[in-house]
TrEMBL record:
Residues 82-102 are annotated as: Disordered. This is Peptidase M56 domain-containing protein. InterPro entries: Beta-lactam_resp_regulator, Peptidase_M56. Keywords: Membrane, Transmembrane, Transmembrane helix. It comes from the Bacteria. The keyword Acetylation does not apply. Residues 123-293 form the Peptidase M56 domain. Pfam families: Peptidase_M56. The chain crosses the membrane at residues 12-31, 43-62, 124-144, 332-352. The keyword Transport does not apply.
Length: 653
């Protein structure tokens, strides 16, 4: 990646901090003006603001590319030559006859701003690297969530045919032509919608059995509203913006507003289908009562319980919803929001670092030709004289002096440009980056002696990461293979050390790839965690199981507490299932107190997935069902037979 691209990207990320604050302020004002029940308009405003957050850095970076000089500017060359002595803002020249001398300009503020911009510009490379690392980690989190959802779809079963027909009837009522699959899953406890071209609605088993037919139709109408509005595609773009601009608080606030208003829009459609807001609010409350496990609202999945349930119910049962704002009002509000772009554009032009001319009008343009070549013993031609007004700038290379003249140096004196053994001639920006990263010729020779041919970007990346040749030797010895320079820098940024790799190897995880080592470091799989697993009797875990344990929070005290309750022979997969479903030692103790002792792990998993707990058992016993087996409890729960159903049967005349 070229230096200009690095700088443009870095400045775009920095300027987005204040630009995003302006956009967020405009959105906050607009949301205060718009009626809280005009969900569609509020959703449109929030989506427009989030789209503007993605457009602004592109415009800022493009502006920087267009206005940035293609070659090293005079301030940069001067800073390279003598950082402690800044260049004068004008060069002495002879004014033409009859011209009045210009008054000296106050340059104190300009000098301070120039020095500040120079410091920021010198650290842009590290800023972009940190941003790239954050994007990579956010993408990994997003990818893992997506893979989990696809696995849920593959493992789900088709819903009963009567409910599939009900879904198709509701889809026709909403004017939808795309086929929608209805699946049921025991791994979820809230409905979810995913997919765009081939949409899927996932329903938990408890919802099919725990809600009335009318309530379930309302929930299905809500999920179909997501599909009709193409919310899945919009949510993917929204998640992309969150991944790229993860560092900006305004992005997360706007995303939260979008998700809240998206659910409100679907609530309005569901109420319009059922015709009764109070009944729909009761359906949401009943759905919440069946919920046992937490369901994240971020990522590509959309759930009927997204947002604040209390706020949604209050909105539904409150005063009658007013009409949405008029088209004129909506257009005015959108124009107000988008005008933030018009305000931000000139501010970008003022805030971005520029390279103004340093000489007065009477001085000729300063032309710099930087070339370094071995000094010939007897030069064939004398050096060209300096042009009037040119500023000689010495470059600290005793064996290869540079010439700065008003015209290009003769070809005889530019036999070999400064290359440092790299491809292509180095620019002034590259020289500054190498110096800022602390790259020395000795380090470059050490990398070459180890068989590498580093580029400028790789040297700068290694310098900022403090990845030395000694670190490379340690990692090569620990991994058993030779990583690339880019992989070395990434491992160094993540804190991967030879000691951590050797600890994994000692635990039986040999022939690890660089990606596996980085994954372990990112999740915190270190010596302490490995020792904790060995002490808990889980010293023979595979690498994937080790990662799952760490990601889910399976720790030594949790394993020990299960062993104290008699579950001392659980496999690694069973432990993962227990932790993922929320099977806690307290849950097992409550089942034991309720009379369910010596349950096998498979039965515990089924009961927890269906929401069977000690409270359900006590209610069934109060209604006369005692001494039920585990299979009978599972059958009753999956069929929707609960204490309320038994009470209704008993009260029937």
């Amino acid at each position: 990646m070229s230096t200009l691209v690095w700088q443009s990207l870095g400045w775009a990320l920095l300027h987005l901090l204040w630009q995003g604050a302006l956009v967020a302020a405009a959105l906050a004002v607009a949301l205060q003006v718009v009626d809280r029940r005009a969900a569609s308009l509020r959703y449109l405003l929030a989506c427009g603001a989030l789209a503007l957050m993605l457009v602004l850095p592109v415009l800022t970076g493009w502006h920087h590319v267009l206005t940035h000089p293609r070659t090293g500017s005079a301030p940069e060359v001067a800073a390279l030559a003598s950082p402690s002595e800044p260049l004068p803002l004008s060069t002495p020249s002879r004014a033409p006859a009859g011209a009045s001398p210009e008054a000296p300009r106050d340059t104190g503020l300009a000098f301070v701003m120039g020095r500040a911009l120079s410091v920021v510009n010198g650290n842009l490379h590290g800023l972009v690297l940190a941003w790239g690392l954050g994007v990579m980690l956010s993408s990994l989190r997003l990818l893992s969530g997506w893979l989990r959802l696809r696995r849920l779809v593959r493992e789900a079963e088709p819903a009963p045919i009567e409910w599939q027909e009900t879904l198709e009837r509701l889809a026709r009522h909403l004017g939808m032509t795309r086929p929608v699959r209805l699946l049921r899953s025991a791994a979820l406890d809230v409905p979810a919608t995913l997919g765009w071209l081939r949409p899927v609605v996932l329903l938990p088993v408890t919802v099919l059995t725990g809600l009335s037919a009318r309530q379930l139709e309302m929930v299905l109408a809500h999920e179909l509203a997501h599909i009709r509005r193409h919310d899945f595609a919009v949510n993917l773009v929204q998640t992309l913006v969150e991944t790229l601009l993860f560092y900006h608080p305004a992005v997360w606030w706007m995303s939260r507003v979008i998700r809240v208003e998206r659910e409100n829009c679907c609530d309005d459609i569901a109420v319009g289908t059922s015709g009764n807001a109070v009944s729909y609010a009761r359906a949401l409350t009943a759905l919440e009562s069946l919920r046992e496990l937490p369901m994240p609202v971020s990522g590509p999945v959309m759930s009927a319980l997204g947002g604040s349930l209390t706020a949604r119910v209050r909105r539904l049962v409150g005063r009658p919803a007013t009409r949405c704002a008029s088209r004129w009002e909506a257009g005015a509000l959108l124009l107000t929001l988008m005008s933030g772009l018009a305000v931000a554009a000139p501010l970008v032009a003022l805030a971005l670092p520029s390279s103004p001319p340093l000489q007065t009008r009477a001085s000729p343009p300063l032309k710099v030709a930087l070339a370094v070549a071995p000094v010939p013993a007897a030069p064939a031609q004398p050096p060209a004289p300096l042009a009037p007004g040119a500023v000689p700038i010495p470059v600290p290379q005793p064996s290869a002096p540079a010439e700065i003249a008003g015209k290009p140096a003769p070809k005889a004196q530019a036999k070999e440009p400064l290359r440092l053994g790299l491809k292509g001639q180095l620019t002034v920006d590259q020289l500054v980056e190498l110096k800022t990263a602390g790259v020395s010729m000795e380090q470059k020779r050490q990398w070459e002696a180890l068989g590498y041919a580093p580029t400028v970007e790789e040297l700068v990346q290694l310098g900022h990461a403090d990845a030395t040749p000694e670190y490379m030797k340690e990692m090569t010895d620990a991994l058993g293979n030779k990583p690339s320079l880019g992989e070395l820098a990434q491992m160094r940024f993540l804190g991967v050390s030879a000691r951590k790799v050797k600890a994994l190897v000692a635990a039986g995880h040999r022939a690890l790839s660089v990606d596996q080592v980085k994954q372990a470091a990112a999740l915190g799989v270190d010596e302490d965690f490995l020792q904790e697993m060995r002490a808990a009797g889980q010293g023979s875990l595979t690498f994937d199981q080790l990662i799952q344990f760490r990601a889910l929070g399976v720790k030594g005290p949790y394993i020990q507490a299960l062993e104290d309750l008699g579950y001392d022979k659980l496999s690694a997969d069973e432990l993962v299932q227990f932790k993922a479903l929320g099977v806690s030692p307290e849950y097992l103790r409550q089942l034991r107190e309720a009379g369910l002792d010596k349950l096998d792990p498979e039965a515990v998993v089924k009961m927890r997935a269906l929401g069977v707990d000690a409270g359900n058992l006590r209610k069934l016993r109060d209604e006369g069902l005692e001494k039920l087996s585990v299979d009978e409890l599972i059958r009753l729960r999956s069929s929707g037979v609960d204490a309320d159903f038994l009470r209704e049967l008993r009260e029937e005349p």
